[in-house]
Amino acid sequence: MQTILLIISLLIFSSQSLASDKYQRVVDSSSRPIPDKRADKNRQPAKILRFFDIQPGQTVLDLFSGAGYYTELVSNLVGETGQVDAHNNQAYINFIGEQKLLKRYQDKRLKNVTQLHQEANQLSLCQQCYDRILMVLTFHDLYYENLEQGWPKIAAPALMEKIRQSLKKDGLVGIVDHKAVNDSEISSAQTLHRISAQTIKTLMHQWGFKLVAESDALTNPLDSLTTPMWDKSIKGKTDRAVMLFGLP
Predict the structure, then answer these.
(1) How many CA atoms lie within 13 A of 195 on its CB side?
(2) Are 73 and 35 in contact (CB under 8 A)?
């Protein structure tokens, strides 16, 4: 009996190992752009994708997807039977550069990705269609405003209501963001491009989401949490909150 149990345990372990390997295989793919690979050490994408439980066949929204670092990884994970919507507003497109985005998506190299270029306040989404919605380093942008750069004030509650309605009943919202100190004001999003983990939890609860899990994959105890995230001393190495939220 012990021998049988041991064999079963080994088979389960082997199955789990093979399943988890898909994340590292996607990260190690030779088709990924070199700048993306250079960022991997600080972003730990295999750990984050595993934590978010991205699976083949899923439909995923990458909200404020930027240059598409995670869009491409998720595209390869969900595969031919999956779909990724890569959202950007015009200010983000201007910041990233249209040519950089063109290089990412030209010649349909990511065939299962649809670029969704809409302003946050006018965002139109399908209903109960997403298995996962990613907000990677962008939750604080809900409380950022820069009219000179074309970034208007976002009606955060209204946007997140659209997000909630577009999520499948068993869907999840994955959030990664630069931490601010826990008692910091929401203004830290404007001044530091940071937001406290507790503020994220409080707001998500107010908007009808429940916390499912947290990860310490991107913890950096050397980060004071008070330096702007773009400062050379901490850029790319901030202490980051990593959370998963679902519907009640």
Answers:
(1) 24
(2) no
pLDDT of 15 higher than 70:
no
Instruction: Name residue 34's amino acid.
Output: I
Give, for 214, the enclosing helix (H) or strand (E).
Answer: strand 210-215
Kindly state the average pLDDT of the residues 66-94.
97
d(CA 201, CA 179): 12
Amino acid found at 115: Q
Instruction: Give the span between the Cα atoms of 232 and 234, in whole angstroms.
Output: 6
Helix, coil or strand: residue 86: strand
- Average pLDDT for residues 50-65, to the nearest whole number? 98
User: Residue 186's pLDDT is what?
Assistant: 97
Residue 151, strand partner residues = 146
CA 87 to chain centre: 12
Token pair belonging to 196: 């406290």
